[in-house]
Design a protein that fits this description.
By secondary structure, the chain is an alpha+beta fold. It has helices at residues 53-61, 68-77, 79-89; strands at 3-10, 17-24, 35-41, 48-51, 65-66.
């Protein structure tokens, strides 16, 4: 099973709000997921981003692949740098 870290859309029509989730790569965008890692709201200024860095790093160390947008969000939150140091320490 290939695990991806990706965004799942929630919220009303034309008012998107996203969850960052770990999900099977075969499941649909808003379908089944394994674990919620955080939230992202691009509609407010500045954008609201909450990520549980420990959970995200655990999934990355286990081989989960982030999408391009999630990778950028993880870089902003600091989880990507934390993953780099954890991987170098292994």
């Amino acid at each position: 099973m290939a695990v991806k870290l990706r965004l799942t859309r929630v919220g009303k029509t034309k008012q998107p709000h996203y969850r960052i989730v770990a999900a099977d790569s075969r499941s649909p965008r808003d379908g089944r997921f394994i674990q919620i890692l955080g939230t992202y709201n691009p509609r407010i200024e500045p954008s609201a981003l909450k990520v549980d860095n420990d959970k995200a790093v655990k999934w990355l160390l286990d081989g989960a692949q982030p999408t391009e947008r999630v990778k950028k969000l993880l870089e902003i939150s600091g989880a990507w740098a934390q993953f780099g140091t954890a991987r170098a320490a292994k």
